[in-house]
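Subject line: Sequence and fold of a protein, written as structure tokens
Enclosed: The protein record, placed directly beneath this head.
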Amino acid sequence: MSDSGRRHWRSSRLVTRLLDEEHLWSLLALAAIVMIAGTEFGVRTYDYREGDIVDADVVAPIELRVADPEATESRRAEARALVVDLYDFDPFAWQAPLASLNALYAWGRGELDADEVVAWEELDPNPQAGLMEAAESTFGLPLPTVFMAAAWAEGFTAETELEAERLLRNQLQHSLIGTLNPLDLGSSSALRIRDIFDQQERLVEDPGAVRDLNASRDWLARAVQTGFALEPAMEDSLGELLGKLVHPNLNFNSNETLARRQAAGDAVDQVFYEVQRGRTIVREGDPVTPKIERELAALREQWSGGGSQTSSAGLTVVVGLAIFGFWRFVRYRRKKIRFQRVARLYHLMLVALVSSVLMTRMMVFIGDAVASSFLAPPYNVAESYRFAIPFAMGSLALVLLADAEVAWIFAALQTVVVGAISGDVELALFSLLGSFAVVFGMTRFAERTEMFRVVVTLAAVNALAVVGLALMKQPVPPWSLTGFQVALAVFGALQATLLASAVLPPFEYMFDTLTDIKLLELSNMNLPLLKQLAVRAPGTYHHSVVIGTLTEKAAEEVGANPLFCRVASYYHDIGKMKQPEYFIENQKEGAKNPHDHLSPHMSALVLVRHVKEGLAYAEEYRLPRPLADSIPQHHGTSLIRYFHAQAKSSEDSEAIREEDFRYPGPKPQTKEAALIMLADGVEARSRLIQEPTPHLLQEMIRDQVRAVLEDGQLDECDITLGDLAKVEDAFLDVLSGMHHNRIEYPEAIDGDDALPDGATPVAS
């Protein structure tokens, strides 16, 4: 090998190793998505202050949380107003007045017990004044002169003292006496009472239960007049005396009330409101108001501050989990399904995801720019343009490139990524529903009309999704806005279909993908390779067409890919074009068989060689890898029985090695390859039956399938015994139709070569 050839070989191996390094691709995809999601086209500062005139429209690039001081203060005022006034209650406030009353009466009785008692009126002014001074000193308060005279005359009796004590105790001990909230600081509908000794609190819901001083004194005066049989002067003066003893037992605690109100207000969290992503905060030429200044401040803080770093970290985690889900799915699929239409499925899914994120980001930017250029709704609502994003593009491309199962998984995980990037649940649901619609609408591309049907299905689902999301909102948006969003959703469906069709050819080439579209193209019998096969090996060509019919029918029964089986059958024996005369189906009747002049070993080598020649043709004409793989696998390591038996009969049987008469393999790795192997043997043996009745065909098919199974050729594929029973029935149906009994026509009469018009043929 030349130096340039070695360098080319080494560089090819390096590229192959890099392509197969899935962990590297995972990291690159993760970094690309996070970078795309965090990139804002046209980023600029928003350093405006109140009163400034804005020189360009400012549109929120992310969803913002903005503090609302007015709403916050309103809620805090409400919280403060709910705190009721606090009053301190003295449950023993009655004891001091009662002690004063008892001391007065005890002093009076002591004075009256003297040897010489003079009537109050007969006392000289000086002694009278001395007694008054002594009584007031004992009582602690000024005394009414009338009371002193009446009580002196009555003798400060114990009966009057006890009754007065009862009235005073009843009023002071069992009533709330005080002045309500003189500062008018809070609610007047209730008050909170706190015992100053044990600090226990209770709520009094009726403020009318509290009496002020004047009301309490009036009550005592009336109680004395109605509850005593006293002289009028004594009644009036006793009521006045007891009124002097009444003191408040309830006092408003303004400091504690104010502190509690302040704490209640401080406990209310700051109120925020949201500015939706894409909403125009301020337009060019408008002045900055206090509200706009707050929103711009929030934009500066949340878009360029530390919050973006935490958002990027969270986005990295979510996207990383989605990529891990792709990886686990592909590993599971490789073990479960041997037939892989995509050589690098994991790489394809990652590229599709990155492309979807990039498309979403670009469409959001374009939608924001378009919305900002309009002033009137519905065209100025940036969120509406999100519905034009072709979310279903990736799922549609994957259902065409791979299959529905891959597209389902991609749709689900793409929804997670879209939701994480946008923070919009509605947008994520819209993405999911549209993606599911295309997977459901196209499971296999067999006709051109399939794409039209997908467009209609996706447009209908997108439109219904927009209407459903609108009805979920309260209040329901204007129907003019919803109608505009429906139109954008239909446009997005058309975009998704066109873009998916556009990326199919490059994706097929990049990821070595075999799509139904590619298979339909390769099934064209006018292709150069198949035309050569028809001309150079017509028997093999006919044999391949029959194999295609057999395998297509069997694949439909066992859940394999019918289209692939039919197309792979067309190419499975293309290697016979090199030396077509060495294969019996191409030998003309009466012609010499070239194997008659070859040894059994050489004949076996010629037959085996057609597999290598087939692979060479596949490489020359760039057949997809799954089709090329079916060329050696349809023979597996099966034994060339005819020449093996011939060799054993003509040579020393002990010197004959069976390995020399077997194909090199590998054995069939997929159901599809197994079906081609079975159909190849069945079709060849069916040509040996002279009278192919259904019974003989059934026995032949069963024998051939059993022989292949017992030879171990099906050990490495996922076909089951149940599948083989269905395959036998499918083969019998096809071959019975091909080998049905022919109608025998009567010989021509009077030299006529054809039956007369309207004549009825007679069956044999």
